[in-house]
Please model this.
Amino acid sequence: MRRFLLARLARAVPAAWGIISIIFLLSRSLSATQTVSEELQSSIAGHTATPKQIRTTERLIRRRLGLDLPLFYVTPAAQSTSGALAWRWQWQGFQNQYHRWLLGVLRGDLGYSFRDGRPVTTQLRLALGATLPLTAAAFLVTSVLARWLTLFLANHRGLRTALLSALHVLHALPLFVIALLLLLLLANPDALSWFPAYGLADFGDNTSWSIQVLQYLHHLALPLFSLVLVSLPSLVVQLDYALARELQADYVVTARAKGLPQRLVVRHHALRNALLPAITYLTDLLPALVAGAVVVELIFALPGMGRLLAEAAAARDFPILLGAVLLIAGTRLGAQILADWLYYQADPRIRLEV
Amino acid sequence: MKHLVLGILAVMSGAFCACSSRQEVNKSAIRIRWERDPENLDPLVLPNENALEAANLLYSSLLSVDPSKQQFTPCLAEALPTVEQTDSLTLLTYRIRPEAVWDNGQPVLAQDVAFTLKVMNCPGLPTESNQAQWGFIRDIRLDSTDSRRFTLVCSGRSPEYAWSSGDYIILPEYPLDPKGQLRPFSLTALRADTAADQHHAAIGAFVRRYKQAQLDHHPERLPGCGPYTLEAWETNRFISFKRKPKWWADQLRSELLPLQAHPAKLNYQIIPDAATAVLALRRGDLEVYPGMPAKEFQRLRQDKDNGATLQFYTADSYKMITACFNIRRPALQDKMTRQALSHLFNVPALIQATQQGLAFPSVGLIRPNSGPGYNDSLPLPTYDPNTALALLQKAGWQRQTDGGWLRRAATGAPERLRLTISYRTTDPAFETIALQLRSAAAQLGIPVQPQPLESSLFREKLRAGTVDMYLFTITGNPFVYNFAPILHTKSIGTGNHTGFGTAASDQLIEAIAAEKQEARQVQLLRRFQRLLHDEKPLTVLFFLRSRVAASAQLTNLQVTGLRPGYMATAIQAKPAAQ
Model:
């Protein structure tokens, strides 16, 4: 087992490094002029800097952020050869943006946000703290509900077609439509105003912990429903298909022939084997737990990883962007290793190959 | 299953009770919607409008804008500065009000202003933008006989110095530099030595201390002399402010709005999605929604059910949407082609389609109700394909058998009239405008390709000059007319993306910015509008109206065309009888 894990890590770490290096080089090759306030440039309101001052400001900001350094160890540079311009690779030494960033990552320092100057690790920690309770709860509720619905479908064959059709319709709806529909149905003074429209609970000084928990759950209900409704259909359909196939296997016929009740046959024999394909699906959801759900976070005004990533991308806040991508890429590779291990645990006949 | 249902019911019933208690918690606060977090409250950084609004609650400036008067009024300063001009310098003398004190009771002194200017110019701090904006202040001279009086030495001359020299937050020296380590260094010396933090141990120590204070997320560590203190801030959720029980300006009983602060608490709720924010306003979770999208604003206003609970305000703003031409592109180099294309914008229809009628056209960059400076002798932009056709022919374009347009360039090479119109994806209005132009141009056989771009890519292309036409938002104000950042030749490559500019236009721009006499400035402004009307480096499609929706229980929002469109500190609850 240890050999397997070490071998997978030996493959996963270079893959993560490769992904993140490519993203680093691609993102940083874009301009970061947005770091200079637009106010300096698109106003006729007076009180503005001269063009020369704006250029100086840009230069100083780029220097402060380390964007004035060469991007990589080698960069293309135009050279004049016999009257014509030609591109040549030029060695830039170790004083380059990539080298600095890589050394920082190896030391556990992901740098500072361009926008607010806070350490990236702090930003990621705060965002994860807001995201994980929601996404993890959605993950758990989806898993439990999917198991229950699959068993329900297996035991109520007459409802199967109608329920599966409904699930397919739900699966066709994008997340933002589901979230807005829930909002307009359940947080609308013109319809039902059962849930808050946005945000998390604000606690007064004298609020007891039980009320705080209830308030928290009350505020998370609609975002949670949205995430559950969007991921539940595909999982149930997949499990139902796998279960239907297992129910036709010989060992199920044998179990029935031994006189086991249908309920036990399904629960203790068929379902265990039917869960195998779901392992891949569920472990695939793990990176999403970390990455957050940008649509839900925007619609319900929740802080979290999705919003942090989206805003960092829009503002070209490279350190935040890279830190978040590094985290998500790491989780993705970890999830793949976990999926292999779970397969092995679920079915010992599967061999872990290094 | 039964347990599950019972559990859900218990959670929901408890949650409903919890929800009602939440209303109690926030009862005294005025809740205002913000689309984004202020991100950074370091008074010398302030990266966005929300940060600026928040900082103005915590700190004070020498001068502040009074939206009711639409002019700068004294705040920390006793009066507007006295102006004295020498050959190459402008000397502005201020005196700070004797009533102005910091939170610890110490008076605000000229030494604090000197300290602020030094921090702005202190190498090693992220204050590059301040250095550019207030780079005209070369030095400060303190009055040895009066600790509240000082003179700012400004390079050159400009009427705007009278107010821009006082439009920045004043920092207290006592918590940041208790030993006065920056005092021995003059402002001029700090500006000259860009590595002073490495050359002088005292400056290096100050920079480290300033950074360690982490004022960006802990403004409570820096006492201000504004009317509010920070109560709580949760990034991307809310930020709330509490009124100081005793604020120095209370004793003035001034009628100036910047010297008043009514709400006991201000709570800004960060809600990025407009639909959610509308719902929150209607539910009573918000009291004020500034900058509501025009469509929602009109829909709510026309719904009679909202009449009792909400009220709706509009004001003419100084923000305009313009269609600009990159005159460095061969096809757009002659003014007749630009004039022709300007006739293809159907401005009244666009105002209706994009702003639901909440906008107004203008002949140029001056707002129509700005007084005599607006050149009302010029015609408003008209949708006129026939005139456009005639102008294209006059510009040398010839209609081809395939319906397109062709002309010979100066080099003799054939040139086709085929354009792109670039815009940011952030505002759906831009897309509507681009599609309307494409449709109108297609009827004349001119292919126009809309090019929606992500914000930073759009800016990059503008600066590189690789766009043909583009849609752009420009913001003005009623205090000064300075067209240099967007139309002076020296700004090509920074803010002048049209590439327009001649010696005559540069001279006119400089004359307008430098002119002190109103009558003379009016003449120059009218001349400049005519010049732009003829040359058409850009065409102003319309000015926007500020839109604010608020609870009917509130009054005195002071809705104006100046950003942010209302004045939070002026808001009051309506008397019960109303």
